[in-house]
């Protein structure tokens, strides 16, 4: 039994159409659908072009620089000299970003829990949301100057000062992203836990947060990725060091973003090569941290069903 109608343009049978008008309408909808699908894929390809170009160029310029000496040896005393390494900058990046993450992520999650589970729409919650939105748009150099004024002038340059600046940049991102994820947790999970006699605090710890772990991790990774590549705040807070300094509270330190900036501004081949190598190393570090966090999240995530 034929359920289609002959196309009025002679293009064949259009299934699902009961009349010539329906056939024309369906053909038009399919044409528009195909056009919009092609437009979406084109936009995605155009958006991916800059990313692919940047990664390719960094791999091309920095791939030949990275070796074991580059990753482990100290930074040369003479900036214009050719050769390794970036060991202190790699260690400094991990330490400074790690301390900033340890400060910003727990505080941001706690603030988001208050906003979504307790504060709701009261005045304090509205103030926190407003300040968080304002902090998101503050230029990173302003944050660096703020920490320079309240900390560096009092206690001197240190890795902890850089961590404070990066934590201030990470905090609003963690707060807003975590709050949005907590809103997506079904209310039925909370109600079921409360109906079984659990307190609100226990419900949040054992039901809400485990269900939201994947989204919270994504928000935290977004904040870490932003902080790891920031240069301006570190120029005012950590100083410069050519040796590994594991003490974040004493002495100057260094990091990959600041080394990229200092070496890239030099006209000599040696520092230019080190800048490309440091850029590639920073990208690889962020990718590895992202993969590690995804694996951990997948292992401990609680399904919603």
CA-based shape = globular
- Overall radius of gyration: 26 Å
Largest sheet: 2 strands, antiparallel
- Total strands: 2
**Total number of helices:** 11
Query: Could you give the order of the helices and strands?
Result: EEHHHHHHHHHHH
Question: What would a concise description of this structure say?
Answer:
By secondary structure, the chain is mainly α. The protein has helices at 20-62, 68-72, 87-119, 123-136, 140-155, 159-184, 187-195, 200-228, 232-235, 256-264, 269-300; strands at 4-6, 13-15. The protein has two domains: 4-62; 68-300, MetI-like fold (Orthogonal Bundle).
Structure write-up:
- It is a single chain.
- This protein is an all-alpha fold and 305 residues long.
- It has two domains: 4-62; 68-300, MetI-like (MetI-like fold), CATH 1.10.3720.
- Helix content is 72%, strand content 2%.
- It has helices at 20-62, 68-72, 87-119, 123-136, 140-155, 159-184, 187-195, 200-228, 232-235, 256-264, 269-300, and strands at 4-6, 13-15.
- The chain has a two-stranded antiparallel ribbon with strand order 1-2.
- The longest helix is centred in the N-terminal third of the chain and has 43 residues, at 20-62.
- It is globular and about 80 Å long.
């Amino acid at each position: 039994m034929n359920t289609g109608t002959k196309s009025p343009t002679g293009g064949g049978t259009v299934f699902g159409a009961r009349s010539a008008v329906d056939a024309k309408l369906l053909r038009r909808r399919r044409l528009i659908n195909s056009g919009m699908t092609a437009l979406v894929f084109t936009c995605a390809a155009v958006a991916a072009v800059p990313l692919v170009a940047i990664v390719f160029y960094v791999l091309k310029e920095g791939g030949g620089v990275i070796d074991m000496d580059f990753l482990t040896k100290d930074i040369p005393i003479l900036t214009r000299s050719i050769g390794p390494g970036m060991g202190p900058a790699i260690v400094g990046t991990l330490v400074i970003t790690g301390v900033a993450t340890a400060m910003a992520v727990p505080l941001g999650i706690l603030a988001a829990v208050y906003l979504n589970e307790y504060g709701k729409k009261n005045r304090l919650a509205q103030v926190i949301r407003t300040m968080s939105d304002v902090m998101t748009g503050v230029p990173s150099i302003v944050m660096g100057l703020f920490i320079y004024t309240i900390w560096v002038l009092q206690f001197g340059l240190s890795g902890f000062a850089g961590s404070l600046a990066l934590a201030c940049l990470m905090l609003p991102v963690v707060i807003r992203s975590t709050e949005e994820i907590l809103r997506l947790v079904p209310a039925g999970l909370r109600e079921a836990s409360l109906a079984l006699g659990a307190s609100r605090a226990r419900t949040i710890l054992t039901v809400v947060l485990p269900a939201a772990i994947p989204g919270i991790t994504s928000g935290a990774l977004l904040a870490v990725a932003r902080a790891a590549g920031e240069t301006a705040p570190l120029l005012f807070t950590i100083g410069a060091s050519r040796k590994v300094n594991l003490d974040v509270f004493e002495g100057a330190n260094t990091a990959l973003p600041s080394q990229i900036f200092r070496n890239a501004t030099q006209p000599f081949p040696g520092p230019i090569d080190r800048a490309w190598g440091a850029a590639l190393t920073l990208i690889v570090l962020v990718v590895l941290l992202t993969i590690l966090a995804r694996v951990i999240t997948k292992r401990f995530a609680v399904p919603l069903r």
